[in-house]
Amino acid sequence: MKFKSLLTIILTFIFLSACQSGNAVSVSPTSATIGKQMQTDGGSYIDLTVNELNSLLDKKDFLLVNVHTPFEGNLSKTDLSIPYDEIGQNLNKLPEDKNAKIVLFCRSGPMSGIAAKELVKLGYTNISELAAGMLAWEQAGLKVEK
User: Fold this and answer.
1) Which residue has the higher pLDDT, 61 or 11?
2) Beta pairing partners, 22
3) pLDDT class for 34, splitting at 50, 70, 90?
4) Which of 12, 43, 89, 105 suits 66 as a labelling partner, its CA being 20 to 30 A distant?
5) H-assigned helices in the chain
6) 3: burial class by Cβ within 10 Å (0-12, 13-18, 19+)?
7) Is 53 helix (H, G, I), strand (E, B) or coil?
8) Sheet harboring 63-66: ordered strands across?
9) Quick one: DSSP state of residue 105?
10) Which of 94, 101, 119, 105 lies closest to 30, judged by CA?
11) Quick one: CA dihedral 127, 140, 72, 63, positive or negative?
């Protein structure tokens, strides 16, 4: 009897451990599980790799925003350019729906990270950013529009 109880406890523990999520999150209900969740004040945002963002661009259903300053180019399908340090003053250019999907990028990553944190702090819930920026994009052999 003790063996069955112990076995049940062990199997339950293994099952529950397997059900816990790691760093990967779903960007949308229809997309594959991608990205790394980054915690910040007020919530979280998703760090995307070049390959992850490139695959999302195939069926683009988000607003793609260049936050680099000064301007050094765009990724294909860029919708807007808003300087990272002015993102909070330009909310009128972003969707009113704070659940709308928004992906940010800059030249190397830090500016889009700052902008992502600011948008999360302002209540946006579906923010992603290209973690290594346009430099990684170019290193992967992908084009930046100058």
Assistant:
1) 61
2) none
3) confident
4) 43
5) 2-19, 50-58, 110-121, 133-139
6) exposed
7) helix
8) 36-40, 43-48, 127-130, 102-105, 63-66, 80-81
9) E
10) 101
11) negative
Angstrom distances, CA of residue 140 to CA of 90, 121, 143, 145: 31, 32, 9, 15
Residues 90-118 pLDDT 10s: 999 999 999 999 999 999 999 999 999 99
Instruction: Decide if 79 contacts 70 (C-beta within 8 A).
Output: no
Q: Which two tokens stand for residue 61?
A: 């259903």
Mean pLDDT of 18-35: 46
Amino acid identity, position 145: E
**What is the per-residue burial (b if ≥16 Cβ within 10 Å, else e) of 81-100?**
ebbbeebeeeeeebeeebee
Give me 130's structure tokens: 């290209």
Q: What is the pLDDT of residue 2?
A: 59
Determine the residue type at 59.
Answer: K
